[in-house]
């Protein structure tokens, strides 16, 4: 059965208005945010029976994403230039990610999302993406069907997890020294000339996870707009891993939470104590910033990461479904410690 929606979007002769898909311009940004928040707000209200006061708990997805990947951001507009829907996509090297995607409730089930998805797919094809992905609602037949039409296959669960930060003073990890021993540093504290070399080390870690995977854009936008920072975990001169995190404001972090967007520990550094050190350091940053909780997404295909989070007292707030299309769809190694949010 098709989802029933109000069809106020149809014109007086019950025709779907002519839709144009175009790239987002600077002047559209606030409208795009409204369209996304309204559409998701309506969806949550239908699912939960109440409308959340803040649709994404205070997290924002539009302005910095557009600055980061302007060619990946699309709107659907009608003849009068009214924005009816939007799709935001980003390319992490060889991996293309779609989301958020939204269409105003009154214009749903009239092919708008399919046209937006087609535009994201063309964008991925032009950029020779080998794998594309989306995170969606596993319980919605419509969402599964929509992405399936574009070749996305339902894969595993993504658990959005969090932990309350206790107020007791914690022992911070020691600052970096050249002697062996774990230490953390923030990317923002590196001299500009050192940042480039560090980016190569990040790429080495991500390339081993999936060929060509590169999250440099996420690191650069967080650094450039001070949305948070990237934490380096080092053992002497070796980079063990890195974590891109956002803090609340105009970022993807919900109010009161430190949010980990991407974290990876290098294959060569698979020691059971490393994830714990890393999480402890991130929790400490959250506490120092006066935040109440830390929020991390984990794909359950990275079972070691999921297990480590449970062991450390993280709780699952909600789950979503990862869907993928392309080469090596099941590339995730359960032993890798990776936290990657595709939303
Ligand atoms: C999800 C969303 C973007 C879809 O937008 P839309 O414009 O209604 O989608 P379209 O009309 O282009 O395509 C929907 C397709 O799903 C199909 N569909 C709808 N309900 C279905 C159901 N219950 N079972 C199977 N297929 C279904 C439609 O038939 C249509 O395909 P078809 O035209 O080839 O038959 C929109 O509902 C939305 O904004 N929801 C709120 C925000 C959201 O959930 N975003 C996505 C998060 S991953």
- Span from first to last CA? 27 Å
Q: What's the CATH topology label of the largest domain? A: Aminopeptidase
Q: How many DSSP H or I helices?
A: 8
Structural class by SSE content: alpha+beta
The first-level CATH class of the largest domain is given as Alpha Beta
Q: How does the major sheet shape up?
A: 13 strands, mixed
Kindly give the count of domains: 2
- CATH H-level name of the largest domain... which superfamily? Gcn5-related N-acetyltransferase (GNAT)
The secondary-structure element order is EHHEEEHEHEEHHEEEHEHEE
How would you sum up this structure in a few lines?
This protein is an alpha+beta fold and 343 residues long. The protein has eight helices and 13 strands.
Description:
Helices cover 30% and strands 29% of the residues. It has helices at residues 29-48, 63-68, 112-126, 141-148, 192-209, 216-225, 273-288, 303-311; strands spanning 20-23, 73-77, 83-92, 95-103, 131-136, 153-164, 182-186, 228-235, 238-246, 257-265, 293-299, 315-326, 338-340. The protein folds into two domains: 20-129, Gcn5-related N-acetyltransferase (GNAT) (Aminopeptidase), CATH 3.40.630.30; 162-340, Aminopeptidase (3-Layer(aba) Sandwich), CATH 3.40.630.30. Strands 1, 2, 3, 4, 5, 6, 7, 8, 9, 10, 11, 12 and 13 form a 13-stranded mixed beta sheet that branches. It has 343 residues and is α+β, with helices and mostly antiparallel strands. Residues 1-9 have low confidence and may be disordered. A hairpin with a 2-residue loop joins strand 8 and strand 9 (238-246).
């Amino acid at each position: 059965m098709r989802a029933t929606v109000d069809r106020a979007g149809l014109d007086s002769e019950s025709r779907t208005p002519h839709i144009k898909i175009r790239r987002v311009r600077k002047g559209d940004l606030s409208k795009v945010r409204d369209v996304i928040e309204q559409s998701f707000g309506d969806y949550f209200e239908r699912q939960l029976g109440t409308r959340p006061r803040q649709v994404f708990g205070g997290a924002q997805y539009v302005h910095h994403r557009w600055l980061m990947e302007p060619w990946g951001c699309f709107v659907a507009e009608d003849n009068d230039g009214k924005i009816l829907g939007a799709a935001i996509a980003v390319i992490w090297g060889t991996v293309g990610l779609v989301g958020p995607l939204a269409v105003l409730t009154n214009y749903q089930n009239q092919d708008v999302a399919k046209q937006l998805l087609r535009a994201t797919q063309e964008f991925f094809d032009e950029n020779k993406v080998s794998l594309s992905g989306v995170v969606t609602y596993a319980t919605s037949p419509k969402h599964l069907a929509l992405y399936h039409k574009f070749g996305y296959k339902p894969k595993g669960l993504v658990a959005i997890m969090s932990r309350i930060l206790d107020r007791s003073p914690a022992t911070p990890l020691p600052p970096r020294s050249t002697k062996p021993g774990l230490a953390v540093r923030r990317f923002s504290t590196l001299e500009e000339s050192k940042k480039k070399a560090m980016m190569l080390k990040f790429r080495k870690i991500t390339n081993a996870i999936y060929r060509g995977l590169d999250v440099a854009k996420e690191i650069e936008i967080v650094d450039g707009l001070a949305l948070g920072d990237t934490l380096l975990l080092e053992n002497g001169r070796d980079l063990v891993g890195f974590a891109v995190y956002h803090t609340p404001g105009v970022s993807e972090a919900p109010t009161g939470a430190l949010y980990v967007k991407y974290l990876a520990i290098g294959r060569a550094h698979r020691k059971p104590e490393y994830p714990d050190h890393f999480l402890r350091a991130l929790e400490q940053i959250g506490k120092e910033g006066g935040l109440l909780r830390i929020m991390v997404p984990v794909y359950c295909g990275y079972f070691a990461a999921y297990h480590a989070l449970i062991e450390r007292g993280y709780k699952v707030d909600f789950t979503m479904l990862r869907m993928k299309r392309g080469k090596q769809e099941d590339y995730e190694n359960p032993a890798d410690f990776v936290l990657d949010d595709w939303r």
